[in-house]
Design brief:
Helix content: 25-40%
Structural class: alpha+beta
Order of helices and strands: HHHEHEEEEHEHEEEHEEEE
Largest sheet: 8 strands, mixed
Radius of gyration: 17 Å
Number of strands: 13
Strand content: 25-35%
Length: about 260
């Protein structure tokens, strides 16, 4: 039995991202399952590497019930981050470069060494050099931001851009810190880091385990986005977005008008 055309699907998704033109869902049409979807994601990454981008870390997706409900998917997933996706803290993004961009507040880790799968949370600070507030800009390449689980995995979990705020030492607790997402000075979302699998540190463990299934091991110096603490909100031209995470500080971006 012939499987899905991994290279062809990756090219279709890559062109959708490059041209900011939505495509239809692919899984039902192509028979894409979860394993094949991660193969497409790998091919999409290679497409980026071939044009000079560098892999700088991993990200988690759908780590909160709010996000699962928002997109109608119920399984934690992971994707890849490249250097070109990074936006300086306080920097600007061109919303015209995306199809339907949305933003969400996150917690970021800077790895000091490779943690072992299932490593006790008590040993966490030995593996993580620093922690920071973050914003992820997501942009599904599918029409109407509607997709199945294999669809979103193939699409690199809707990854588009990210901002990392100031790094700081890992505090004693990360499991229930207050989180705000502000747009133009008004609170758009309120949440807690508890929404990220109960504790963002668990997201790192899940990322190690899930990526390991596909032969990907996290590296020293990599960034790791633990997942959203709230539902995502649309990014409008001219908007100023700020994520506030208790004890960690803020991260911000501007949408060019």
């Amino acid at each position: 039995m012939i499987g899905p055309d991994v290279a062809g699907i990756a090219e279709r998704l890559g062109l959708a991202a490059d041209t900011a033109t939505a495509t239809g869902q692919l899984a039902a049409e192509t028979g894409l399952d979860v394993d094949a979807a991660y193969a497409v994601q790998t091919a999409l990454l290679q497409r980026r590497l071939d044009r000079g981008e560098r892999l700088v870390g991993l990200k988690m997706g759908l780590t909160s019930r709010a996000k699962m409900a928002q997109v109608g998917v119920d399984e934690v997933i992971w994707g890849r981050l490249t250097d070109v996706m990074r936006v300086p803290d306080g920097g600007a993004v061109d919303v015209g470069a995306y199809i339907h961009p949305r933003v969400e507040p996150e917690v970021a880790f800077l790895l000091d060494r490779l943690p072992e799968p299932g490593e006790p949370i008590g040993d966490f600070t030995d593996a993580v050099r620093a922690v920071a507030p973050a914003i992820e800009l997501i942009d599904s390449r599918y029409a109407d931001f509607v997709f199945s689980l294999p669809d979103v995995i193939a699409d690199n979990t809707s990854a588009a851009a990210f901002v990392i705020g100031p790094w700081s030492p890992v505090p004693d607790g990360l499991e229930n810190l207050g989180v705000l997402l502000e747009v133009d000075g008004r609170v758009a979302q309120v949440g807690s880091t508890a929404a990220i699998l109960g504790d963002p540190r668990r997201a790192l463990d899940e990322g190690i385990r899930l990526a390991g299934r596909h032969g990907v091991r996290l590296r020293e110096g990599w960034l790791f986005l633990a997942g959203a603490a709230t539902a995502a909100v649309p990014l409008r031209p001219g908007a100023h977005v700020r994520a506030v995470v208790e004890k960690l500080g803020t991260a911000s971006l501007r949408a060019a008008s």
